[in-house]
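Sample entry (134 residues):
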Amino acid sequence: MTSNADQPIKQRAAQLCHENQANIDHFVDNFDAESFERAIKLISEARRVTITDLASSPLTANAKASIFVPHHSSFTSNSIISYLAAAECIINAVPASSSKQTEQALIARQELIKRLNIEERLSKIWCLPYGMTA
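Predicted structure, serialized as tokens:
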């Protein structure tokens, strides 16, 4: 059997991408909308959130809701791409679940950015030639 390290770099990259896509496909194929909605309601009120890979994880024993995300990989580390995809789903679902609160939070955030003058200060930094500081 050939190890991953013996494969050409492009072939290894392609394999990793295919494995990541398979994990995301598995996440989508097994998506439980009822559990996800329950989790989103809890997450929107939570201070801390844990996402796990298996129902047999010890983290699920005391959980009110669980979101399962596969991470299988033939490489050294487990895949994080499917976790990022699940996190992005959560990040977008939580504000959508309470649009009035979200709107108020966004207005407050925008006012804070304006008061701190962040955008103007960042635009000056990003537009400086390489090696120059503001």
